[in-house]
Design brief:
By secondary structure, the chain is α/β, with parallel strands linked by helices. The protein contains eight helices and six strands, in the order E-H-E-E-E-H-E-H-E-H-H-H-H-H. The protein has a six-stranded parallel sheet with strand order 2-1-3-4-5-6, with helices on both faces.
Length: 224
Protein backbone atom coordinates (compact mmCIF):
# COMPACT_ATOMS: atom_id res chain seq x y z
CA UNK A 1 0.00 0.00 0.00
CA UNK A 2 1.54 3.36 -1.03
CA UNK A 3 2.43 5.86 1.69
CA UNK A 4 -0.10 8.64 2.24
CA UNK A 5 1.24 12.12 1.34
CA UNK A 6 0.65 14.37 4.35
CA UNK A 7 1.15 18.13 4.71
CA UNK A 8 0.89 20.32 7.83
CA UNK A 9 -0.01 24.01 7.51
CA UNK A 10 -0.50 26.64 10.21
CA UNK A 11 0.92 29.64 12.00
CA UNK A 12 1.45 27.80 15.31
CA UNK A 13 5.12 26.74 15.13
CA UNK A 14 4.93 24.62 18.28
CA UNK A 15 2.02 22.63 16.93
CA UNK A 16 3.75 22.19 13.54
CA UNK A 17 6.85 20.85 15.29
CA UNK A 18 4.74 18.43 17.33
CA UNK A 19 3.03 17.09 14.20
CA UNK A 20 6.38 16.69 12.47
CA UNK A 21 7.79 14.68 15.38
CA UNK A 22 4.72 12.48 15.34
CA UNK A 23 4.38 11.85 11.60
CA UNK A 24 7.59 12.57 9.67
CA UNK A 25 9.34 9.28 10.42
CA UNK A 26 6.34 6.97 10.12
CA UNK A 27 6.55 4.64 7.16
CA UNK A 28 2.86 4.84 6.28
CA UNK A 29 3.20 8.56 5.42
CA UNK A 30 4.94 10.42 2.62
CA UNK A 31 5.97 13.49 4.63
CA UNK A 32 5.60 16.69 2.56
CA UNK A 33 6.56 19.04 5.39
CA UNK A 34 5.13 21.44 7.97
CA UNK A 35 4.82 25.07 6.91
CA UNK A 36 3.34 28.42 7.84
CA UNK A 37 0.80 29.79 5.32
CA UNK A 38 2.60 31.25 2.32
CA UNK A 39 5.97 29.80 3.36
CA UNK A 40 8.18 28.42 0.57
CA UNK A 41 8.00 24.64 0.34
CA UNK A 42 10.79 22.24 -0.49
CA UNK A 43 8.39 20.00 -2.42
CA UNK A 44 6.00 22.38 -4.19
CA UNK A 45 4.77 19.62 -6.52
CA UNK A 46 3.85 17.22 -3.74
CA UNK A 47 0.08 16.67 -3.77
CA UNK A 48 -1.19 15.87 -0.24
CA UNK A 49 -3.85 13.27 0.37
CA UNK A 50 -4.09 14.48 3.96
CA UNK A 51 -3.94 18.05 5.28
CA UNK A 52 -3.45 18.86 8.96
CA UNK A 53 -4.53 22.47 9.47
CA UNK A 54 -4.13 24.99 12.29
CA UNK A 55 -7.74 25.94 12.96
CA UNK A 56 -6.70 28.90 15.13
CA UNK A 57 -5.02 30.56 12.12
CA UNK A 58 -7.66 32.59 10.22
CA UNK A 59 -5.36 32.73 7.20
CA UNK A 60 -4.48 29.06 7.07
CA UNK A 61 -3.95 28.13 3.45
CA UNK A 62 -6.58 25.99 1.83
CA UNK A 63 -4.68 23.82 -0.59
CA UNK A 64 -5.84 24.15 -4.19
CA UNK A 65 -5.99 20.82 -5.95
CA UNK A 66 -5.66 19.96 -9.60
CA UNK A 67 -9.11 19.22 -11.09
CA UNK A 68 -8.23 15.62 -11.92
CA UNK A 69 -7.07 14.79 -8.39
CA UNK A 70 -9.29 13.98 -5.39
CA UNK A 71 -9.57 16.57 -2.63
CA UNK A 72 -7.30 15.89 0.37
CA UNK A 73 -8.78 14.94 3.71
CA UNK A 74 -8.65 17.87 6.14
CA UNK A 75 -8.10 17.56 9.89
CA UNK A 76 -8.43 20.79 11.88
CA UNK A 77 -6.62 21.39 15.19
CA UNK A 78 -7.52 24.04 17.80
CA UNK A 79 -6.02 25.21 21.06
CA UNK A 80 -9.51 25.21 22.61
CA UNK A 81 -11.97 23.44 20.30
CA UNK A 82 -15.56 24.60 20.83
CA UNK A 83 -18.93 24.51 19.07
CA UNK A 84 -17.94 27.35 16.73
CA UNK A 85 -14.78 25.46 15.77
CA UNK A 86 -16.79 22.30 15.13
CA UNK A 87 -19.20 24.23 12.90
CA UNK A 88 -16.25 25.63 10.94
CA UNK A 89 -14.84 22.11 10.44
CA UNK A 90 -18.15 20.83 9.12
CA UNK A 91 -18.72 23.80 6.83
CA UNK A 92 -15.17 23.38 5.47
CA UNK A 93 -15.88 19.69 4.78
CA UNK A 94 -13.19 18.67 7.22
CA UNK A 95 -12.83 15.21 8.71
CA UNK A 96 -11.87 16.06 12.30
CA UNK A 97 -12.12 18.74 14.96
CA UNK A 98 -9.21 18.04 17.30
CA UNK A 99 -7.37 19.59 20.22
CA UNK A 100 -3.75 20.59 19.57
CA UNK A 101 -2.85 18.76 22.78
CA UNK A 102 -4.60 15.50 21.89
CA UNK A 103 -2.47 12.43 22.49
CA UNK A 104 -0.51 10.85 19.60
CA UNK A 105 -2.85 7.86 19.78
CA UNK A 106 -5.90 10.13 19.33
CA UNK A 107 -4.30 11.89 16.36
CA UNK A 108 -3.41 8.60 14.68
CA UNK A 109 -6.91 7.22 15.23
CA UNK A 110 -8.38 10.38 13.71
CA UNK A 111 -6.12 10.07 10.67
CA UNK A 112 -7.11 6.46 10.09
CA UNK A 113 -10.79 7.36 10.53
CA UNK A 114 -10.40 10.17 7.98
CA UNK A 115 -8.98 7.65 5.50
CA UNK A 116 -12.34 5.86 5.75
CA UNK A 117 -14.29 9.10 5.27
CA UNK A 118 -15.37 9.39 8.91
CA UNK A 119 -15.56 12.54 11.01
CA UNK A 120 -13.83 12.62 14.42
CA UNK A 121 -14.79 14.84 17.35
CA UNK A 122 -14.65 14.48 21.14
CA UNK A 123 -17.97 13.18 22.56
CA UNK A 124 -18.34 16.11 24.96
CA UNK A 125 -17.94 18.64 22.13
CA UNK A 126 -20.52 16.81 20.04
CA UNK A 127 -22.93 16.94 22.95
CA UNK A 128 -22.27 20.66 23.43
CA UNK A 129 -23.11 21.22 19.76
CA UNK A 130 -26.27 19.13 19.92
CA UNK A 131 -27.51 20.93 23.00
CA UNK A 132 -26.63 24.33 21.53
CA UNK A 133 -28.97 23.54 18.65
CA UNK A 134 -31.85 22.28 20.80
CA UNK A 135 -31.83 24.73 23.68
CA UNK A 136 -31.55 21.85 26.15
CA UNK A 137 -28.94 22.57 28.86
CA UNK A 138 -25.69 20.67 28.34
CA UNK A 139 -24.87 17.89 30.83
CA UNK A 140 -22.84 18.81 33.88
CA UNK A 141 -19.10 18.04 33.68
CA UNK A 142 -18.15 14.48 34.52
CA UNK A 143 -17.27 14.03 38.18
CA UNK A 144 -15.11 11.06 39.13
CA UNK A 145 -17.18 9.97 42.11
CA UNK A 146 -19.00 6.80 43.19
CA UNK A 147 -22.46 6.31 41.72
CA UNK A 148 -25.20 7.08 44.25
CA UNK A 149 -28.66 5.86 43.37
CA UNK A 150 -29.97 5.23 39.88
CA UNK A 151 -29.40 7.75 37.06
CA UNK A 152 -32.40 9.63 35.74
CA UNK A 153 -33.01 8.28 32.22
CA UNK A 154 -34.93 10.96 30.37
CA UNK A 155 -35.29 9.14 27.03
CA UNK A 156 -37.43 6.14 26.11
CA UNK A 157 -34.88 3.35 26.35
CA UNK A 158 -37.31 0.73 27.68
CA UNK A 159 -35.90 -1.98 25.42
CA UNK A 160 -32.54 -1.78 27.22
CA UNK A 161 -31.58 -3.46 30.46
CA UNK A 162 -31.02 -1.31 33.53
CA UNK A 163 -27.25 -1.80 33.25
CA UNK A 164 -27.30 -0.79 29.57
CA UNK A 165 -29.29 2.35 30.39
CA UNK A 166 -26.72 3.23 33.05
CA UNK A 167 -23.89 2.84 30.55
CA UNK A 168 -25.69 4.94 27.91
CA UNK A 169 -26.36 7.59 30.56
CA UNK A 170 -22.66 7.95 31.43
CA UNK A 171 -21.49 7.58 27.82
CA UNK A 172 -23.76 10.52 26.92
CA UNK A 173 -21.81 12.61 29.42
CA UNK A 174 -18.61 12.00 27.50
CA UNK A 175 -17.14 9.28 29.71
CA UNK A 176 -14.75 6.71 28.22
CA UNK A 177 -15.25 2.97 28.66
CA UNK A 178 -12.62 2.92 31.41
CA UNK A 179 -14.28 5.82 33.26
CA UNK A 180 -17.69 4.13 33.02
CA UNK A 181 -16.18 0.88 34.27
CA UNK A 182 -14.72 2.64 37.34
CA UNK A 183 -18.01 4.45 37.94
CA UNK A 184 -20.06 1.25 37.87
CA UNK A 185 -17.52 -1.16 39.34
CA UNK A 186 -17.31 -3.38 36.27
CA UNK A 187 -14.61 -4.12 33.69
CA UNK A 188 -14.01 -2.00 30.56
CA UNK A 189 -14.61 -5.12 28.46
CA UNK A 190 -18.05 -5.50 30.04
CA UNK A 191 -18.83 -1.88 29.18
CA UNK A 192 -17.67 -2.47 25.60
CA UNK A 193 -19.84 -5.58 25.30
CA UNK A 194 -22.92 -3.77 26.61
CA UNK A 195 -22.38 -0.86 24.21
CA UNK A 196 -22.03 -3.28 21.30
CA UNK A 197 -25.37 -4.87 22.22
CA UNK A 198 -26.97 -1.42 22.49
CA UNK A 199 -25.63 -0.47 19.03
CA UNK A 200 -27.26 -3.58 17.56
CA UNK A 201 -30.54 -3.22 19.45
CA UNK A 202 -31.00 0.49 18.72
CA UNK A 203 -29.88 0.21 15.10
CA UNK A 204 -27.03 2.74 15.36
CA UNK A 205 -23.47 2.44 14.15
CA UNK A 206 -20.94 3.59 16.72
CA UNK A 207 -20.68 5.68 19.86
CA UNK A 208 -21.33 9.07 18.19
CA UNK A 209 -24.61 7.93 16.65
CA UNK A 210 -25.67 6.47 20.00
CA UNK A 211 -24.96 9.75 21.81
CA UNK A 212 -26.87 11.72 19.18
CA UNK A 213 -29.84 9.35 19.54
CA UNK A 214 -29.71 9.69 23.33
CA UNK A 215 -29.76 13.49 23.10
CA UNK A 216 -32.58 13.29 20.57
CA UNK A 217 -34.66 11.23 22.99
CA UNK A 218 -34.00 13.70 25.82
CA UNK A 219 -34.95 16.61 23.58
CA UNK A 220 -38.22 14.97 22.51
CA UNK A 221 -39.09 14.24 26.13
CA UNK A 222 -38.34 17.81 27.21
CA UNK A 223 -40.52 19.31 24.46
CA UNK A 224 -43.34 16.83 24.93
Amino acid sequence: MPAMPVLVIGLDAGWRTRMQRLLAMRGEFDWLGAYAPGQHRDSPNGQPALLLLDGDDPDVERERRKPQLPAPRRLYFYRNPNVEALQHCIESQGHACLDKHDSPDTVMRAIHAAESGLFVVAPELLLDALHAGTGVPAPSPVVEAPLHGTPDHSGDWSSLTERQREIVHWAARGMSNKQIARQLGISPETVKTHLHHVFEREGVHGRMALLAAHVGERTATSSG
